[in-house]
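fwd from M.: "can u put these together and see what the complex looks like"

so here's what she sent:
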Amino acid sequence: MSDITETRLPAAKPSRGSLLTDPRTRSILIQGTVLVLVCVALWFFISNGRANLAARNIQTGFGFLDQQAGFDISQTLIAYSDNASYGRVFLIGLLNTLLVAGLGVIFATIIGFGVGIARLSPNWLVSKLAEVYVEVIRNLPLLFQILFWYLGVLAAMPAARQSLSFFGLAYFNNRGVVLARPLFGDGSGIIGLALLAGIVLAFIVRRWAHRRQMRTGQPFPTIKTMLALIFGLPLVAYAATGFPISLEWPVLRGFNFAGGIRVIPEFVALLLALSTYTGGFIAEIVRAGIQSVNRGQSEAAGSLGLRPGPTLRFVVVPQALRVIIPPLTSQYLNLIKNSSLAVAIGYPDFFALFAGTTLNQTGQAIEIIAMTMAVYLVISLIISGLMNLYNQRMALVER
Amino acid sequence: MSDAVFVRKEIVPGAPPPLAVGGLLGWMRRNLFSGWFNILMTAISIVLIVLVVPPLIRFYFTDAAWSGDSREACLGHSGACWPFVKAKFGQFVYGFYPIAERWRPNIVFALGAFLMAGLLIPRAPLKRLNAILFFAVFPVVALVLLGGGNFTLNQFIIGRIIPLAALLQGAQFFGLTVSFWLDFVLSAIAISAIVFFVARALGADGGFAGRTTAALFAVLGLALLALDINFGLVPVETRQWGGLLVTLVVSITGIVTSLPLGILLALGRRSHLPAVRIFSVCFIEFWRGVPLITVLFFATYMLPLFLPGGLTIDGLLRALIGVTLFSAAYMAEVIRGGLQAIPKGQTEAANALGLGYWQTMSKIVMPQALTLVIPGIVNNFIGLFKDTTLVMIVALFDLLGQIRAAFSDPAWATPTTLFTGFAFAGVIYFVFCFGMSRYSMFVERRTSAGRRR
């Protein structure tokens, strides 16, 4: 027996259909608001900017790039005199930044991989030392480290007469570093060509060896062959052309050195600080990357009969690189951006020359700061684009 | 049959006992001297330690000058000149903040440390109240205490249309400008009413919208009131601030302002609305692509040109704006990482329960995402703390800038003054940053406890 009574639900009232709860209206409304706000903000800034520039009698435009700069620069990679234009200053600054950043990236990578691997060393003392290095370096501000190297260490170096010598190849003193200069005689062009040919051949061999191994399964001593090609060919050419490259040894004359390449102390301090600082961060990335590879991977490789060397090269490192590359990229970008701290010690990098001296002399704040930001932005985008490309090649191919 | 049988006649000598595997010796044998390469590395490490550690100890402790009150006390010592730090300590911490007023930064330090401890210690109660106090009340209190308060407020919104100030002829009431507050109250009522009617016209809950707007105005009003009241504090210009005070003000303002901005930007970047997403992506990528120092230069030299003519912004405030924009972009990326780690099922479940976007985000997704990225946020904060040193380049004196300025004091010119300054600054920065990184590791262990097997 059932006493189910039929109850009829009251017919649902058609909702009042608020415009605000309709997804499409909401989407248009919100996006419209954002656009209007952005436009209003832009209009606000631009109109203020125009009014201010008019009130201060500042001419806008990029004409100042052709004006004579009229100041000296302590390190120039291309010809420069004080009657060159601000455009030239822009270029020199850019080259100086790229020089210190490029060398910094190389040294930081070497330090980072060295220390990162040392942190995983079975040797307790070595891994502790690496850990102390990483902790100290990462927990001190970069500007502090730059100033420490510049004001503290380099300024405390002996005077030129008591320079610390490194086998006569390099002299360290309180005015920077003097390096032996390689002199390229007749026929050194051939050596350069041989080096180029060696690199190209090495890569062709690598491709061929890879294909052959894929096809037949036979390995080829690729790395040894590549090294032999890259270093052997130029050496052969060097001997064949009659040893045309010689060194110009720096010689102490009076109170300073004659000959050799003079490296200004600002450059040395900046390079040291940038590469040790970024190296500390890279070390952590490398350690985390290697540790992220499951232990089962190397155990499996071992049970397949691979020895520790090949296990590392073919199993662990390729997988670790996948984890390492994205954060490594951002460290490289950080290093390039951090090189702008050169302004604190007076190294003539792009920022110091352009946003510093040029801005002070011309007063074209808007153009100069916009150009400076644009340059760093473009460098960042190029590097991250390249590293993304590399990352895509290394990434796991998924379904 | 073969007779070539060999039978051993004597007993085989016992195998040598195994090398010690336990104890200190065994540990050393395994970890330090297990092969020629390892022995070499150990030797190099010992040489490094001998080269670095004893000189450091000599510099910091045994060879250092500990007492005295002038440079003469340090001249005979090859180690640190601690009397220099002692004499300059006030400057390193407060900059040129007037000595009679130093109790004010002290209160701010204590209050900040207390609230921060409440937020950072997991077991401390009243987290929500604490967060409101730290993120909303503390900045206002700090601003009033440090700067002296008693700001001049002239007109709000309606005052720009109706000349209230002229009508009331600058009437004052306990140091408050009556015209401004009349203006504020009228504007608040008018705007709340407009919101109420617009929302109702569009068919939404008009009462809720109006009440929310009125509540926001009330909060803003309280903050402005605190800034406007004359507490009788001596005004101290930001130019006189310096040292650790500036370092902390810049870094804490950076974190407090960049967290909400970063959350909004991260949500914007993951939004389905193209205009919002593109705006967020451009904003984030722009600020992340340029060095902080260009941002500071932008804020110092370019920003004043883009603001209305009569408006001058304080040098410290400019740097704060730059730091905020910069760190908000980095914060947004950290939070986006957290958002991406939350499975889609969470949002779908919330939607199935009938929660709206903001409810889903604030009650379901954000709490999980933020706990996940606390280490990232702390790391960001460490970076920000270290980056505050850059304000030195736009002529503000933070801790490092103040110490650098002290090097050139002829009254303390000794061969070791410079190294003493670096030694002191290094210890301070290291203690702060190392402490923060240990904290983030502690949090990471706690939050990952559920996932650990």
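replying to her w this: Strands of chain A lie at 164-166, 170-173, 176-179, 181-184, 245-248, 251-253, 256-258, 261-263.
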